[in-house]
Each structure stands twice: as C-alpha cells, then as structure tokens.
Specification:
The protein is α/β, with parallel strands linked by helices and about 325 residues long. The protein folds into two domains: about 120 residues, Cytidine Deaminase, domain 2 (3-Layer(aba) Sandwich), CATH 3.40.140.20; about 120 residues, Cytidine Deaminase, domain 2, CATH 3.40.140.20. About 25% of the residues lie in helices and about 25% in strands. Helix 6 packs parallel to helix 7 and helix 7 packs parallel to helix 8. The longest helix is centred in the N-terminal third of the chain and has 14 residues. The radius of gyration is 20 Å and the shape is globular.
C-alpha cells in the first residue's frame, strides 16, 4: 500500500483495503454553480483535472443541491442490473422500481409517492426511451440523469422544458468519500460491498421463495441509499414505502407502513441496522409484512427473533449494516 495517494487514483474494490497514511488534495474549480445549498451561499464544482464524470446536455445552470442529488440518484440506480428508474428528492428515493422497460419502472416509481416526486430528480440505469419521457409529461422535475440519450429522446426533452437539466453520467466508480469537519476531514471507503443471499441467515420462519428473495435483495440494495434510520418496503421489485432519517427506528417503520398502506400485505421490509427492540417487528407484522431483512447484532436479538416467530414473520439476518448519515 503506497504511503501517499491522490484521491481520484484509488478505486475501492475490497472492503479490507486500508486507508492510505497520507492524501493529497489538488483541486481545480471546474465551474461555478447557481448557488450552494441556499441562494445566499456560493457553490462550485471542483475536480482533479481528470474530468467531472458527467456532462450537462441541456437546461439551466446547476446548483449545489442539483449535483449532490444527481450523484446520489446515479449511485442508487447503478446498484441494479435490470432496467431501473428512481425518483430522488433531498437525497432520498421517493420511488424506485425495476421492470422490463423504463416507462413501466418510472410509472411505478412515481406512483409510490407522487407528492414528494414534485421537483425531484429522475435517474435511470439505461438510456431513457421516448415512452418514459412521455410518461414524465405534465410533471415537474429538476433534472434527469442517465448513462446516455438517443438524439430523438434528447430533442424531445429539449422541447419538453427549457429549464430541466439533462445530465449524461459516466459509469459509476468507487472512490474515497471525504467530508470536512472541524479543521480536518473524515475519510472512508464507500459502501460498495457486494452481498449475496447465500451468506444470509433465516432466523425465523420459512425460507423465502425465489420471487420473495429477489424482493429482499432489491430492498436491501435500496436501504443503503436512504438516510438513517432507514426502512424500505418492497413488493414485486417496487419500493412501496420508505421511512427516512428518523431519530428512532419505530417511527421509520410507522412512516413506511403508512405510505405503503395495503401494499404492505405480503411485502418485504428492509432495515439499515438492527432492531434494538421488538416493537418495530410488532408494527411490521400488524401491517402485514411477511419478511424482515436486517443486519442483526442487537443484544436483544433473541427477543426480536422470538417475537417474529410468534407473529409468523420470516426474519433474515444479513450481517451487514448500512448506515447513511
């Protein structure tokens, strides 16, 4: 392991890779932004001289929030192999679905929370189709991000809105994550661990069938992109409920199950961290959740498992926590 390393030169592939002893920041301002998080703050985008990783093809100037949300949305959809569409608002997905075509995926993502989708960002992991663009008609979105655009689709987007930003993003790579605090920096490797259900452990109930297990994987991928405490409810590769950023987990479960409503029946619920008490399990069971996916590791795991068994809920331990602050 080298002692000195440029930030952009390290692609994280192994969770056991050690952090370098020294990092060099050599940044250039690539562009001024409309403003920072708020209009009274200045904002800029800097790179290391290797390119920005994206290109704005259309629309008005970008803001700090536009780029931060676009990057988060881009990371989210890149976790999925099937055609996937996501709508992201304030750094969190309001809807995401995978289907055989992007128009269907987008419609399901919008249906999950059409109110929060207003002013959001649309991200897809394929070149958007004309059918998907037509499905967006009459709805206000700040930005669309995708790996590429056919010329006819790009022209349709231009006619649709003079303001909506259209971004083409490069393939996702994993780099060190850096955050300034006090007079220094927090640095970490990204949450890119490849998980497999083969290493998961069913601690309660029967083993999920193939279709349900696919929902478990889908929900577990989403939950790491949701701010903690995070709860995600999925049915048929479609997020139907989400609980975001609550100071306690039961509030997140309450928000997610309320949003999902009747769709909670037979659905899968994923949690970014363990349940410290069995109250969330009781609430999930009352809503009709059939499977709970969580890391495990609480001192009360036995109590939580016992409640799941009593209520007939399948519980799976992944052994991997996915906090996002």
């Amino acid at each position: 392991m080298p002692k000195r390393l440029l930030i952009g030169g390290w692609k994280i592939e192994d969770r056991n890779m050690k952090l370098p002893k020294s990092l060099e920041l050599n940044l250039r301002k690539l562009q001024d932004l409309r403003y920072g998080e708020n209009p009274h703050q200045q904002g800029g985008f800097y790179d290391e001289g290797k390119g920005s990783g994206f290109e704005k093809l259309w629309g008005i100037d970008l803001s700090y929030n536009n780029l931060e949300d676009a990057y988060g949305a881009w990371r989210l959809v890149n976790d999925f192999g099937e055609p996937t569409a996501a709508i992201v608002k304030h750094g969190n997905p309001s809807g995401i679905a995978s289907r055989n075509n992007l128009a269907d995926a987008f419609n399901l993502a919008l249906e999950a929370d059409s109110i929060s989708a207003f002013g959001g960002i649309v991200a897809v992991n394929r070149a958007p189709t004309l059918a998907m663009i037509e499905a967006m008609r009459g709805k206000f979105f700040e930005l669309v991000v995708a790996p590429d655009y056919e010329q006819k689709v790009l022209e349709r987007l231009k006619r649709r809105s003079e303001k909506m930003r259209v971004i083409r993003a490069n393939p996702q790579v994993a780099n060190l994550e850096i955050k300034r605090i006090f007079e220094g920096f927090l640095v970490q490797t990204p949450d890119t661990l490849k998980e497999t259900p083969l290493k998961w452990k069913a601690v309660s109930g029967k083993k999920p069938d193939k279709k349900t297990l696919a929902d478990c994987e889908f929900a577990n991928k989403i939950v790491k992109h949701v701010k903690s405490n995070a709860i995600v409810i999925v049915k048929n590769l479609n997020m139907v409920g989400v609980g975001i950023g609550q100071p306690n987990r039961i509030n997140s479960v309450m928000l997610a199950t309320t949003q999902a409503g009747k769709k909670s029946r037979g659905a899968v619920l994923a949690s970014d961290a363990f349940f410290p008490f069995d109250d969330s399990v009781k609430l999930a069971a009352k809503a009709g959740i059939s499977v709970i996916v969580q890391p495990g590791g609480s001192i009360r795991d036995n109590e939580v498992i016992a409640t799941a068994k009593k209520l007939g809920v399948t519980m799976i331990f992944t052994g991997v926590r996915h906090f996002k602050h």
